[in-house]
Write a structure and sequence with these properties.
By secondary structure, the chain is mostly helical. Helices cover 68% and strands 0% of the residues. It has one domain: Membrane associated eicosanoid/glutathione metabolism-like domain (Four Helix Bundle (Hemerythrin (Met), subunit A)), CATH 1.20.120. It has helices at 14-39, 50-54, 64-73, 90-120, 122-144, 151-154, 157-183. The relative contact order is 0.18.
């Protein structure tokens, strides 16, 4: 809970926050509809070769090894939990944030990619997935090198915001394609 007297934490009225959410939902719906209608297969049909359609879209989780290696370099793996410093080493913290954010996006990415590949178009899903992977890699590299910088100076939004657009658009495209198949 934020202190109303605390001027360092800006608060957004609930009504404005709901309006912003509805704008995003509308935008993702329109983008998803564009994918479904422009690139979607015949509604109610599945691809002839599901493995071929899904294989390019199944990707690996990134940055797991980087966190462990950073912890190893700092000697953290040889310490017990009670002996760890109150504040993590900056390199370890930044790599941990990269991993955490990656894992936060993975459910939406995996579900969106799978459904888009299966219901809409495997090639479109794999191209969007490739763009997502490249952006996430750029995000990870930028964040890892952010030591000593203020969060505003790092510039992570230019990588992570498009990733959310890609994931949400694939989910909406799959949803619209499913509805198109149902009403057909």
């Amino acid at each position: 809970m934020t202190d109303p007297k605390d001027k360092t934490t800006p608060t957004v009225p609930l009504e404005k926050e709901l309006q912003e959410i509805m704008k995003l939902v509308t935008m993702f719906t329109l983008l998803g509809a564009a994918l479904s209608f422009l690139f979607g297969r015949e509604p109610g049909t599945l691809p002839d070769d599901i493995i071929k359609e899904l294989a390019p879209s199944i990707l690996r989780v990134l940055r797991v090894m980087g966190v462990g290696m950073a912890k190893g370099r700092r000697g953290i793996l040889e310490q017990s939990y009670k002996d760890l410093p109150a504040k993590e080493d900056e390199e370890v913290y930044l790599r941990q944030r990269v991993l955490t954010n990656q894992l936060e996006q993975m459910p939406l990415f995996i579900v969106g990619t799978f459904l888009c590949a299966l219901l809409v178009n495997g090639k479109v899903a794999s191209i969007l997935s490739l763009v997502w992977v490249v952006l996430r890699r750029m995000y990870a590299s930028t964040y890892k090198r952010a030591g000593g910088k203020k969060l505003k100076q790092i510039g992570l939004a230019k990588f992570t915001v498009p990733c959310y657009f890609i994931c949400n658009t694939m989910v909406m495209a799959a949803g619209i394609q499913a509805v198109r198949g149902y009403v057909r």
